[in-house]
């Protein structure tokens, strides 16, 4: 008898992950790019039957995503995607569970579920489509709309301060946090692959243009004439350099980041902050995430931080096995007929 375990290789293409459903997003929507990059990335990270992959969503334009993936999917209710995904993963830890969600769905009504998913380190992948507006319900301001933004529900400008999604994920202790942009196809593919290969809660924020209700929100970061001076790509082990001619950099003086001119003669590449995405302390990642809130600083994309620790589903499985080893198999009948019981006559 051959006791060797058979190892099967699955060879997929992008078309294998495309469903037969007509894609119903507005022409020009950034969601098309996210869908395309996911389908192009999956063949490189998925080596199991497609039946073992699940996409879960809540409500919003982004939440139509499960219809367009040729995998299992669950279109849930508003804000509950991460809670549903947690249940799916704990019930069957062998599944690869992904969440497609928007800034309103995840960070408003779904905010509580999101922070506890991160806190527990459930092994799911959360892709946030952040367009800084409510798209499906026609243009209300969202938790990521900037202060002063004019929308249908803030006609004189929003007075709220927006969430910084990566900082929120960091504070809730997600173990993988990254960001990309819908128009940066190759970079987005790389971030999807990195998130998919991570063991634990992986949070990927994607800046996504809503060309109907918030068109041009990220033009400064994507226009060919401005992007190089306004975006900095984080690369592990490399100094923080940006600019069209790679002539600007960021130094860390204590806990204070400073933008410096590399052509001034006062600073060289050796003086710059070297990115460490595996730093066990969250402090440096938090500082990088704060670039968004500092005038004159570039917007960071890439992996902010990645650490490894026991996942929630691993912890539950370990605990069950330990208790079984100590007390044997449990009995549902004993549980139901134990504890406080009374008769009603």
Describe the 3D structure.
- By secondary structure, this protein is an alpha/beta fold.
- The protein has a domain at about 15-215 and about 310-315: Thiamin diphosphate (ThDP)-binding fold, Pyr/PP domains (Rossmann fold).
- It has twelve helices and eleven strands.
- The chain has an eight-stranded mixed sheet with strand order 2-1-3-4-6-5-11-7, with helices on both faces.
- Strand 1, helix 2 (about 65-70) and strand 2 (about 70-75) form a beta-alpha-beta unit.
- The longest helix has 16 residues, at about 310-325.
Strand and helix layout:
Elements (H helix, E strand, L loop, with lengths): L30 H15 L7 E5 L7 H4 L3 E4 L5 H11 L4 E7 H7 L1 H10 L4 E6 L34 H7 L4 E6 L3 H13 L4 E6 L11 H4 L4 H4 E4 L6 E2 L5 E6 L2 E6 L21 H7 L9 E8 L5 H16 L4 H5 L9
Parallel strand pairs: 1-2, 1-3, 3-4, 4-6, 5-6, 7-11
Antiparallel strand pairs: 5-11, 8-9, 9-10
CATH topology of the domain at 14-217 and 309-314: Rossmann fold
| Overall geometry | globular
- On the 0-100 scale, what is the average pLDDT? 95
**Largest sheet, strands/sense/barrel:** 8 strands, mixed
Strand content: 15-25%
Distance separating the two termini? 61 Å
Structural class: alpha/beta
Strand order of the largest sheet: 2-1-3-4-6-5-11-7
CATH class of the domain at 14-217 and 309-314: Alpha Beta
Which value, in Å, is the CA radius of gyration?
A: 22 Å
């Amino acid at each position: 008898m051959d006791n060797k375990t058979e190892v099967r290789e699955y060879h997929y293409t992008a078309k294998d992950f495309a469903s037969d459903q007509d894609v119903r997003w507005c022409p020009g929507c950034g969601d098309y790019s996210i869908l395309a990059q996911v389908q192009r990335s999956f063949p490189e990270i998925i080596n199991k039957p497609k039946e073992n992959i699940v996409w879960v969503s809540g409500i919003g334009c982004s939440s139509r995503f499960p219809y367009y993936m040729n995998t299992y999917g669950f279109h849930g209710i508003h804000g509950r995607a991460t809670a549903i995904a947690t249940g799916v993963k704990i019930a069957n830890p062998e599944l690869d569970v992904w969440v497609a969600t928007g800034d309103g769905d995840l960070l408003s009504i779904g905010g509580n579920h999101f922070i506890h998913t991160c806190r527990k380190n459930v092994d799911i992948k959360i892709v946030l489509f952040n367009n800084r507006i409510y798209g499906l319900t026609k243009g209300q301001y969202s938790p990521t709309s900037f202060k002063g933004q004019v929308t249908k529900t803030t006609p004189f400008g929003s007075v709220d301060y927006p969430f910084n999604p990566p900082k929120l994920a960091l504070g809730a202790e997600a173990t993988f946090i990254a960001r990309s942009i819908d128009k940066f196809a190759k970079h987005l593919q790389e971030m999807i692959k990195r998130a998919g290969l991570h063991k634990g809660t992986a949070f990927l924020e994607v800046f996504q243009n809503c060309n109907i209700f918030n068109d041009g929100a990220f033009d400064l970061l994507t226009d060919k004439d401005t992007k190089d001076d306004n975006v900095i790509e984080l690369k592990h082990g490399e100094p923080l350099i940006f600019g069209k001619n790679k002539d600007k950099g960021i130094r860390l003086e204590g806990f204070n980041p400073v933008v410096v001119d590399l052509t001034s003669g006062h600073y060289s590449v050796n003086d710059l902050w070297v990115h460490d995405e595996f730093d066990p302390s969250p402090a440096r990642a938090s500082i990088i995430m704060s670039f968004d809130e500092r005038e004159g600083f570039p917007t960071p994309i890439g992996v902010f931080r990645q650490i490894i620790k026991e996942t929630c589903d691993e912890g539950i499985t370990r605990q069950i096995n330990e208790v079984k080893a100590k007390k044997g198999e449990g009995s549902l009948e004993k549980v139901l007929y134990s504890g406080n019981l009374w008769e009603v006559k």
